[in-house]
Amino acid sequence: MFYKPICDQRRRVICKLSYLLEREREREIERERMEGGIRRGGEKRDSFHVIHKVPVGDSPYVRAKHLQLVDKDLDASIVWFWKAINNGDRVDSALKDMALVMKQQNRPEEAIEAIKSFRHLCSKQAQESLDNVLIDLYKKCGMIEEQIALLKKKLKLIFTGEAFNGKTTKTARSHGKKFQVSITQETSRVLGNLGWAYMQQGKYRASEAVYLKAQMIDADANKACNLSLCLIKQGRFEEARNVLMDVLSGRLPVTSTDTKIIRRAAELLQETELQPQPCNQSTGKNMEEEVIERISILLNEWASLESIFDHSTIFEEISHQSDGIAC
Fold this sequence. Notes:
mainly alpha; Serine Threonine Protein Phosphatase 5, Tetratricopeptide repeat
């Protein structure tokens, strides 16, 4: 008779404890799922942070990334990126990611100001990456002079051996995939960007010379199309056709992602076909004089870089080309 209430009380206590333990177990499972995944049978299942590319933890930077990538609340993510920078939490990544989010929100001027104001808080290793972001931001804002100055700075670092933190390759990331970039590929890429910037200023001959150098170092179809456009702007349609035929005939490296480039090359070629054929009238200049004039224009455009390259191959190889043509 006295045992029944005691047994009922024990059952209630046991049931309550079981319920609490079950709730705690559910919370623990959710925590593990959020922070690193669940282990079952010795195998780790895909975890939340891997799927969403969100770092583990509860710091301001982690919250900013969660807001950016999971909640898609970009305004709130910027607030937390600011908090991460102010708290010294992964400042290198926080500043770069915040600038990219601002660019995504069409606020490039704010992003530029943020990088300029806070890059001194970042490590030396992060400076090159911040420069790359700045170049894209300058391009988006139409700040061509600033873009050219930064590209020349990057070329100086390459030719003085300071780029890539003194290494010959670096790990880059594109669309979530990592790959290795050599110093040769980076040099060609920077020269290609510089050639495009010169073209936006209407400095077509300087742009042409830079594109030619970039193609000598590491040729690709995209820079070839830009070079042909530069030639078209100068009315040199036959030369542009020859460059475009190299693209369309497959003489330049083409990957599966270059379909847009091939289409662009075909459109540019069609544009040259609509132009009148050049007549054979003499311009009063022979080939040697024409090449010397182009090199003079290049040297004038690159006057501020003369001390940087100082007998470097960029001028030596162009000089050799003119010697070959003259012969």
